[in-house]
Amino acid sequence: PKKHVLYPPDLHLLINFVHSSSAFKESEANLTPICLPKFNNTGFLHLYVCYITPEICLLLLSSKAEDFGQMSISKDRIEANLRSTGQSLLQIERAVKNHNYTVDEVGIPDLLHFLYKSSTLSQMTEPQMGPPYHTKKQRKHLFRLYEQVHHSVHILDKDKPHKVYY
Questions:
Q1: Kindly report the CA angle at 136 between 133 and 137, in degrees rounded to 5?
Q2: In this model, does residue 157 exceed pLDDT 70?
Q3: Residue 118: pLDDT above 90?
Q4: Which residues make Cβ contacts (< 8 Å) with residue 105, sequence separation at least 6?
């Protein structure tokens, strides 16, 4: 139902799950159970996966496996609408290829990287990795720093009520 929210960790799990399996690209449509811990860590949802084009993947979720037929019909309607407008699929493919942005485009001098999370929208953004984070070791160091910041901001110590951390 529309009243349910997919939180960023669950969305990240979905995206990684779909991208890590070539089987999804090779078949017309798949239905697979998946546990999304933030959504419900005691049950499964059923994920309908279909690549409309090699670059555009449609994901539909249901609480019931028997909804496969209905999800297939929904997929056909969505795909027909996207194809009937002429430019929709092309615009989506263009957006997929150009979704990254750099720290320089943000326009803040001396900024190397950042993460921004909107709690109200339950969304987050970050620029693509640029200098000095080219190697895996440098990126790992950055994420360790983010972990430290996260811990400092969310620590349950009354004497350190950080909400903003520089």
A1: 85
A2: no
A3: no
A4: 127
Provide the H-helix boundaries in the chain: 8-19, 23-26, 68-84, 88-97, 103-106, 136-154
Residue matched to tokens 């249901």: 62
Amino acid identity, position 41: N
Q: How many residues does the chain have?
A: 166
- Provide, for the chain, the percentages of residues in helix, strand and coil under a 3-state DSSP scheme, each rounded to the nearest 5: 40, 15, 40
pLDDT at 2: 61
Mean pLDDT of 65-91: 89
How far, in Å, CA of 97 to CA of 101, rounded?
Answer: 11
For all residues of the chain together, what is the average pLDDT? 84
**Token pair of 147 as six digits:** 């972990």
